[in-house]
Fold:
Amino acid sequence: MNSTRDLISIRDLSKKDVESIIEKSEEMNKQIEAKKIKETMKGKILANMFFEPSTRTIMSFSAAMQKLGGSVIGFEEIEKTSMVKGESFIDTVKIMEKYADVLVIRHPKEGSARYAANASTKPVINAGDGANQHPTQTLLDLFTIKKLKGNIQDLNITLLGDLKYARTMHSLAYALAMMDANITLVSPFGLEMEKNFVNEIKEKFTPRIIQTNDIHAGVRKADILYVCRIQKERFLDAYEAEKLQKEFMISPELLEESKEDMIILHPLPKVSEIDPRVDDSEKAKYFMQAYYGIPVRMALINWVFE
Ligand code: NCD
Structure:
């Protein structure tokens, strides 16, 4: 065990921590807009260790570190590391922490970020561990909701898609319960959020939480419609994944049932769960959401060193 400040799971944060990170992210956003960024990371190195594909997470962490005056090293493919020669994950972590001041890790195995954090004397940030957690995505989701709606508490937020395998949904459902939002979980049959996880949230926060397979009900009720793709790579049978994907699609026609000021968020990448015509709708805010990855990750990089 070590005494660095890590960000591994949203469970590690209190409501106060979340509120403070959102505030710091707003401060970062202001610094970016004013073109007056405090270079707090000058002389520091961030290592990206990505054992799974990524566009937004890796790019926005790199951009965030560079905006703070720091530099970035890392890899995006295991094939480019000595792990192909048989080196263990933990040995790789122990080497990278000698070269860098903070490690950002994405890995297909649940628990791998925690495992790395226990072995590292430098802070570790979880950039997604299997189907488990994606806390930095959740913090940028919360920041986006706060920016666009002014508050999180009491909003009706519908989480729609693959709630079984999407780590983004696990972290977000937990955080929304903590922030006192009203949550509706909508998924295809068989991809519901795990019972144990829903029970954990219920016991900790007594949230107003409903589960349904009715996409129309979820859309009609929502102030925020948060969609994610079917996590095909976590299915044994890709055909099953594709079949489910076709059943769950957000079209302009379906959106006619939604509230006037409803907004659609998505962690991206989107595949076919959102009709491309929806991108032009005023309601679609997912590209803006992806941008907010920069100020939020700047705030998080500062936060682990506090
Ligand atoms: C997500 C992920 O990797 O979990 N992507 C992201 O970081 N924005 C969502 C996904 O892959 O569906």
Notes: The mean pLDDT is 95. The radius of gyration is 19 Å. The first strand starts at residue 45 and ends at 50.
